[in-house]
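User: Can you fold this complex?
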Amino acid sequence: MAEIVVDNLTKVWSGSPAVDGISFTCASGEFTVLLGPSGCGKSTTLRLIAGLEQPSAGAIAIGGRDVTRRSPAERGIAMVFQSYALFPHLSVAENILFGLKVRRVPRAERDERLKRAAQTLGLTQLLDRKPAALSGGQRQRVALGRAIVADAAVCLMDEPLSNLDAQLRQEMRAEIRGLQRRLGMTMIYVTHDQVEAMTMSDRVVLMRDGRIEQQGTPAELYDCPASGFAARFLGTPPMNLLPAAAGAGLAPDVPAAAEGSIGVRPERLRVDAPGHGLTATVEAIEYLGADTLLTLDAAGAKLIARTDGHARHRIGEAVGVSCAAGDLHFFDAGSGRRVEANGNGCNAPERGEGA
Amino acid sequence: MSRLRASIHASLLLLPAVVLLAAFTHVPAVRTFIGALYTTPRGNRPEVFIGLGNYRHLLDDPVFWQAMANNVWYAALTIPLSVILALVMALAVDARLPGRAALRMAYFTPTVLPMIAVANIWLFFYTPGYGLLDQVLGLFGVAQTNWLGSRDTALNAVIAVAVWKEAGFFMIFYLAALQTIPHDLREAAAIEGASRFTFFRRVTLPLLMPTTLFVLVNAVIGAFRLVDHIVVMTRGGPDNATALLLYYIYEIGFRFWDSAYAATLTTVLLAILAVLAAVQFLFLERRIHYR
Ligand SMILES: Nc1ncnc2c1ncn2[C@@H]1O[C@H](COP(=O)(O)OP(=O)(O)OP(=O)(O)O)[C@@H](O)[C@H]1O
Ligand SMILES: [Mg+2]
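Assistant: Here's the predicted assembly.
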């Protein structure tokens, strides 16, 4: 009922496009993440959907209704700002109720909704406080409260967790995701943190320079990156990208392409004795507890391999790195796009389309 | 030991300022309170202690009561008018419009001008017959008016000058305060469906309250303190119609050289200001959100 359709949306700031003809659909009740590096146009896209900016071209429909020229209030959305945008002179309760009062919701219903939202978010004890007397996490909850009390079918969030510490961020991730599921909201969530994108979303829209680089489920983006950029953006550590000539030796029977690059995920690499695959030297060892990251140097090409548990290797040791042919991804030299399907089950996707 | 030396150093550093303040503010103030209890020494007649005699005289002085009434009217108009005008101008030049820097300058100019210069400009506006005001009104067929010479219009005419002069100054404070209000509050309110007026009433105005208190205190003080334009434009006339308290004090003290009675009037003026300041702080303070 609250499907969001963005069609060929463009926003030009004094000559240079911040958002350049993007199209995507966010199904009703789905959690969509807009992901991308700083300055790629995520916030601008979100603000266009919210109606806080006017598009230069293109259309936005929410729930089957064209809202491109409608005011923010007419779009039936709630929004959580990165800065939370709480009214500093109003108490937590008044902040949460602000919109309901503006919309002249009857008092009894207002109180009922406030009570429910406060319970959901654990704010019951804090209702009389001013925002200045709250911690960052509590302010975040108040901002969430303001969004959910509106009962809007669509919720937009712009990097809502970026002001929180790592621990709290992880908790809030699960909480926001849970809340969205329970309330059945259609969510568009902006972040530049690929971990947030992977863990929270139903769909990821990966942006770059105002265009969509790739969109699909987190698994699709991870398993079948549509370009070298997408391959490097998702996953920590990112996918290894080698010149095609250097990488061909990783797996048997790989057609030795002269150009382009070959990608392989760190966890897909096998590290054995020299003689298997490429020969490399161990340059650095990072022990992470559950696994260990090895930085390898294969004739000038750097590779990172993820191995289980403690490393059995020493720095300076010569090893052989290899992988299955199906784990290799091939990218075009010029465009950086994926060039061919091989045993890994991916088709070469069109630019901007799901795999 | 070093603490003692530090506090001696500190005291020595403060000394020049304290001496100046004491010599030119505190001692004269106390002398004023005391002087109000004596008669004015004249020629070979020395001053005599008469207790509250000067105050009794004051209660019977019709000109004092006239100046008091004038001043109350003057304050009752200049304060709200200048503050509201300042807020309106600040909201206007805070908006995104072309040439707003020039507009800000224009609004602020009266503040930069000395009051004497302002008064002279307005003297020209008010000149009967060929002054700007009469010329403009003449276009609509209004008969010429002696704005400053008539008892009915003189006080309001000087009030207009004061508002014109003060509003630009207060505008700067409002403008600075407006610019500290984050833009995303407006956006959050817009998403909730708040109209511009609702946003103004429920968010902007409350967030401007600390500024409003500051501006109000200044406006109140100004209403009792700013009389330069009276000196230039009307000298309290016609028939004391524009005599304000401070101007009356000036006349008593420096035209009639009755220093004891001037001291009495000064004490009354200070008491009024103190009460007004206390009232403002006590009543408004509670309703203000400070960040
Ligand atoms: N009001 C504006 N006026 C002019 N240019 C703007 C404006 N807002 C954004 N831009 C430009 O548009 C581009 C995209 O900005 P946007 O804020 O959407 O990036 P973002 O993806 O949200 O980045 P970040 O992760 O850093 O928040 C940037 O190059 C930015 O400089
Ligand atoms: Mg942004």
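The pocket of magnesium ion (ligand 2) is lined by residues A 42-43 (CB under 6 Å). Chain B has a mean pLDDT of 86.
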